[in-house]
TrEMBL record:
Cofactor: Fe(2+)
Name listed for the protein in its UniProt record: Peptide deformylase
Gene3D superfamilies: Peptide deformylase
HAMAP family (alphabetical): Pep_deformylase (MF_00163)
Family that this chain belongs to: Belongs to the polypeptide deformylase family.
Example GO biological process: translation
Residue ranges crossing the lipid bilayer per the database entry: none
Organism whose genome encodes this protein: Flavobacterium urocaniciphilum
Amino acid sequence: MILPIYGYGEAVLRKVCDDISQDYPNLQETLSNMYDTMYHACGVGLAAPQVGLPIRIFIVDTTPFADSDEVSKEEAAQLKDFKQTFINAKILKEEGEIWGFNEGCLSIPDVREDVYRHEKITIEYFDEEFNKKTETYDGLIARVIQHEYDHIEGILFTDHLSMLKKKLVGKKLQNIMEGKARPDYRMKFANIKVK
Protein backbone atom coordinates (compact mmCIF):
# COMPACT_ATOMS: atom_id res chain seq x y z
CA MET A 1 0.00 0.00 0.00
CA ILE A 2 1.32 3.44 -0.93
CA LEU A 3 1.47 5.72 2.10
CA PRO A 4 1.59 9.52 2.20
CA ILE A 5 5.09 10.91 2.75
CA TYR A 6 5.35 13.36 5.63
CA GLY A 7 6.62 16.75 4.53
CA TYR A 8 9.09 19.17 6.05
CA GLY A 9 7.67 20.63 9.25
CA GLU A 10 5.95 17.45 10.45
CA ALA A 11 7.00 16.81 14.07
CA VAL A 12 7.74 13.10 13.51
CA LEU A 13 10.65 14.06 11.22
CA ARG A 14 12.42 15.64 14.21
CA LYS A 15 12.08 12.71 16.60
CA VAL A 16 14.95 10.45 17.59
CA CYS A 17 13.25 7.17 16.75
CA ASP A 18 12.78 4.14 18.99
CA ASP A 19 14.21 0.66 18.52
CA ILE A 20 11.70 -2.07 17.77
CA SER A 21 11.59 -5.72 18.76
CA GLN A 22 11.29 -8.72 16.47
CA ASP A 23 7.59 -9.00 17.35
CA TYR A 24 6.75 -5.44 16.22
CA PRO A 25 3.14 -5.64 14.97
CA ASN A 26 2.78 -6.09 11.20
CA LEU A 27 6.50 -5.61 10.56
CA GLN A 28 6.51 -7.28 7.13
CA GLU A 29 3.45 -5.30 6.04
CA THR A 30 5.11 -2.08 7.24
CA LEU A 31 8.25 -2.88 5.23
CA SER A 32 6.22 -3.80 2.15
CA ASN A 33 4.28 -0.53 2.38
CA MET A 34 7.52 1.42 2.76
CA TYR A 35 9.02 -0.19 -0.36
CA ASP A 36 5.79 0.44 -2.33
CA THR A 37 5.83 4.08 -1.19
CA MET A 38 9.52 4.60 -2.00
CA TYR A 39 9.23 3.09 -5.49
CA HIS A 40 6.04 5.03 -6.25
CA ALA A 41 7.87 8.28 -5.37
CA CYS A 42 10.99 7.23 -7.37
CA GLY A 43 13.18 7.37 -4.27
CA VAL A 44 16.35 5.45 -3.43
CA GLY A 45 15.72 5.44 0.31
CA LEU A 46 12.92 5.94 2.81
CA ALA A 47 12.86 6.07 6.61
CA ALA A 48 9.93 5.14 8.85
CA PRO A 49 9.45 8.71 10.19
CA GLN A 50 8.83 9.81 6.60
CA VAL A 51 5.63 7.74 6.71
CA GLY A 52 4.75 8.87 10.23
CA LEU A 53 6.35 6.06 12.26
CA PRO A 54 8.90 7.12 14.92
CA ILE A 55 10.76 3.80 14.75
CA ARG A 56 14.31 2.90 13.71
CA ILE A 57 13.67 1.45 10.27
CA PHE A 58 14.89 2.62 6.90
CA ILE A 59 15.15 1.03 3.49
CA VAL A 60 17.58 1.59 0.63
CA ASP A 61 17.59 0.59 -3.04
CA THR A 62 20.39 2.27 -5.03
CA THR A 63 19.60 0.56 -8.33
CA PRO A 64 18.55 3.84 -10.07
CA PHE A 65 22.03 5.29 -9.46
CA ALA A 66 23.60 2.44 -11.45
CA ASP A 67 22.46 4.08 -14.71
CA SER A 68 24.03 7.45 -13.88
CA ASP A 69 26.81 8.80 -16.08
CA GLU A 70 28.47 10.14 -12.92
CA VAL A 71 29.49 6.72 -11.57
CA SER A 72 32.24 4.38 -12.70
CA LYS A 73 31.45 0.93 -14.10
CA GLU A 74 32.79 -0.58 -10.87
CA GLU A 75 30.53 1.59 -8.70
CA ALA A 76 27.57 1.00 -11.03
CA ALA A 77 27.98 -2.74 -10.46
CA GLN A 78 27.83 -2.19 -6.67
CA LEU A 79 24.82 0.13 -6.93
CA LYS A 80 22.86 -2.17 -9.22
CA ASP A 81 20.51 -4.34 -7.22
CA PHE A 82 21.72 -3.04 -3.83
CA LYS A 83 18.55 -3.31 -1.80
CA GLN A 84 18.61 -3.51 2.00
CA THR A 85 16.37 -3.06 5.01
CA PHE A 86 17.96 -1.54 8.12
CA ILE A 87 16.29 -2.07 11.51
CA ASN A 88 17.63 -0.58 14.79
CA ALA A 89 20.68 0.65 12.92
CA LYS A 90 23.67 2.21 14.60
CA ILE A 91 26.55 3.76 12.67
CA LEU A 92 29.70 2.57 14.43
CA LYS A 93 32.27 4.47 12.40
CA GLU A 94 32.46 7.19 9.73
CA GLU A 95 35.80 7.52 8.01
CA GLY A 96 37.61 8.53 4.85
CA GLU A 97 37.43 11.78 2.96
CA ILE A 98 34.46 14.09 3.28
CA TRP A 99 32.89 14.66 -0.13
CA GLY A 100 29.97 16.61 -1.50
CA PHE A 101 27.01 15.34 -3.45
CA ASN A 102 23.78 17.04 -4.51
CA GLU A 103 21.11 15.49 -2.24
CA GLY A 104 17.36 15.68 -2.24
CA CYS A 105 14.67 14.18 0.00
CA LEU A 106 11.15 12.89 -0.58
CA SER A 107 10.02 14.86 2.50
CA ILE A 108 11.52 18.04 1.05
CA PRO A 109 10.42 18.06 -2.61
CA ASP A 110 12.03 20.46 -5.10
CA VAL A 111 14.96 21.25 -2.80
CA ARG A 112 18.40 19.91 -3.72
CA GLU A 113 21.70 21.03 -2.24
CA ASP A 114 25.26 19.79 -1.89
CA VAL A 115 25.79 17.91 1.36
CA TYR A 116 29.21 16.80 2.64
CA ARG A 117 29.56 13.37 4.22
CA HIS A 118 32.26 10.80 4.98
CA GLU A 119 32.98 8.41 2.13
CA LYS A 120 32.92 5.23 4.24
CA ILE A 121 30.80 3.93 7.12
CA THR A 122 30.53 0.86 9.30
CA ILE A 123 26.99 0.15 10.46
CA GLU A 124 25.36 -2.42 12.73
CA TYR A 125 21.72 -3.33 12.09
CA PHE A 126 19.12 -6.06 11.84
CA ASP A 127 17.76 -7.09 8.44
CA GLU A 128 14.07 -7.79 7.71
CA GLU A 129 14.44 -11.30 9.18
CA PHE A 130 16.03 -9.82 12.33
CA ASN A 131 19.47 -11.20 11.56
CA LYS A 132 22.12 -8.98 13.15
CA LYS A 133 24.74 -7.66 10.74
CA THR A 134 27.76 -5.38 10.77
CA GLU A 135 28.74 -4.09 7.34
CA THR A 136 31.06 -1.50 5.82
CA TYR A 137 29.91 0.56 2.85
CA ASP A 138 31.44 3.35 0.82
CA GLY A 139 30.59 5.75 -2.00
CA LEU A 140 26.97 6.43 -2.93
CA ILE A 141 25.68 3.46 -0.94
CA ALA A 142 27.26 4.90 2.21
CA ARG A 143 25.82 8.32 1.39
CA VAL A 144 22.25 7.06 0.96
CA ILE A 145 22.56 5.08 4.20
CA GLN A 146 23.86 8.17 6.05
CA HIS A 147 20.98 10.27 4.68
CA GLU A 148 18.38 7.72 5.80
CA TYR A 149 20.15 7.14 9.12
CA ASP A 150 19.90 10.87 9.79
CA HIS A 151 16.12 10.53 9.47
CA ILE A 152 15.91 8.05 12.36
CA GLU A 153 18.03 10.48 14.41
CA GLY A 154 15.62 13.36 13.71
CA ILE A 155 18.03 15.06 11.30
CA LEU A 156 17.22 16.34 7.79
CA PHE A 157 19.71 16.98 5.01
CA THR A 158 18.93 20.70 5.25
CA ASP A 159 20.47 20.64 8.75
CA HIS A 160 23.85 20.09 7.07
CA LEU A 161 23.59 23.31 5.05
CA SER A 162 25.29 26.60 5.83
CA MET A 163 23.20 29.44 7.27
CA LEU A 164 23.29 31.17 3.87
CA LYS A 165 22.06 28.07 2.03
CA LYS A 166 19.31 27.58 4.63
CA LYS A 167 18.21 31.16 4.08
CA LEU A 168 18.18 30.67 0.30
CA VAL A 169 15.88 27.62 0.53
CA GLY A 170 13.75 29.07 3.34
CA LYS A 171 10.82 30.08 1.11
CA LYS A 172 10.69 26.61 -0.48
CA LEU A 173 10.66 25.02 2.99
CA GLN A 174 7.86 27.35 4.08
CA ASN A 175 5.88 26.40 0.96
CA ILE A 176 6.25 22.71 1.82
CA MET A 177 4.96 23.31 5.37
CA GLU A 178 1.98 25.19 3.94
CA GLY A 179 1.13 22.40 1.50
CA LYS A 180 2.09 24.39 -1.60
CA ALA A 181 4.56 21.77 -2.89
CA ARG A 182 3.19 19.63 -5.70
CA PRO A 183 5.26 16.46 -6.07
CA ASP A 184 3.81 13.60 -8.09
CA TYR A 185 3.32 11.45 -4.98
CA ARG A 186 1.03 11.69 -1.94
CA MET A 187 2.22 13.89 0.91
CA LYS A 188 1.03 14.91 4.35
CA PHE A 189 1.83 18.55 5.06
CA ALA A 190 2.44 20.12 8.47
CA ASN A 191 0.59 23.44 8.32
CA ILE A 192 -2.08 23.38 5.68
CA LYS A 193 -4.20 26.41 6.42
CA VAL A 194 -7.93 25.71 6.40
CA LYS A 195 -9.99 28.60 5.04
